[in-house]
Structures are given as structure tokens and as C-alpha cells.
């Protein structure tokens, strides 16, 4: 059911995904073609905000912080998974894998490699602060426009 809390959560996580995507790009190897990288992550932010955070609004102050951190963690998980799948398919089209099982395990290996890139203090700080702010804003929207 659409409501203001879901909309605010979706907007805040989309903004967080946009900011963090911009922070990740300089950390990737030079010459990396990002294509729709930012927009895919923003779309995932909208989905995670709407689905994960929006339905958990209205439970109080501390649960709202937990809600924001949960939404942020879901966003990071799905972004790593989707980007890993994209990279695996790109490499599979170049016949880099011997079989389907090797390709499927490569998704998680690639996601783990991308996850290691996120372990920079400014990205971790941005994710934590952004998750908390998104959770608090979602809770405020739920109370204000109920």
C-alpha cells in the first residue's frame, strides 16, 4: 500500500545509492566502463526503500535507526549481487568460464571483490550516516503523514 513513509524511504535510499555510487567510481580501476552503474544502484535504492524500509515504519525511534541500517544493508547486498551478475554475464560472453557452476560461483567472488572496494572509511561513514538519516526520515514521514 503506497504511503508517505514508503516514498520517503525510497527517495532517501535512492539518494544514498547515488552518492555512494559517485564515491565508488574513483576507486575502481582506471578505464572501467560504468554504463548504467549509478542508475541501476539508484533503482535498487528505490526498491529497497519502498519494500524493505517502508513497511517497517512507525515502530519508534530506535527501531527507525535499525530500519535505516537494515535498508542500507539490503541496498548494499543487492547492489553487489546485481553488479556481480552483470560482470559475470559480461565475462561469460567472452567464454571465461568452463561451466555454469563456475559462472554462478563467480557471481559471489566478483561481489566479494566489489565489497572489498567499499571498505573505505568515507564510504562506510556515508553508508552508516545515510542509513540512519533514511530511517529517521522514514519514521518522521510515517508520523507526520499518517
Q: What does this 3D model show about the protein?
A:
- There is one protein chain.
- With 146 residues, the protein is mostly helical.
- The chain has one domain (4-23, 36-144).
- 77% of the residues lie in helices and 0% in strands.
- The chain has helices at residues 4-24, 37-53, 61-92, 100-117, 121-144.
- Helix 2 (37-53) packs antiparallel against helix 3 and helix 3 packs across helix 5.
- It is elongated and about 55 Å long.
**Which residue ranges are poorly predicted, with pLDDT under 50 across at least 5 consecutive positions?**
none
Our count of domains comes out at: 1
Structural class: mainly alpha
Overall pLDDT confidence: 94
The major beta sheet can be summarized as: none
Helix content: over 70%
In sequence order, what are the helices and strands, one letter per element? HHHHH
Number of helices: 5
What keywords describe this structure?
mainly alpha; 146 residues; single chain; 77% helix
Secondary-structure map:
Layout (H helix, E strand, L loop, with lengths): L3 H21 L12 H17 L7 H32 L7 H18 L3 H24 L2
Helix pairs in contact: 1-2, 1-3, 1-5, 2-3, 3-4, 3-5
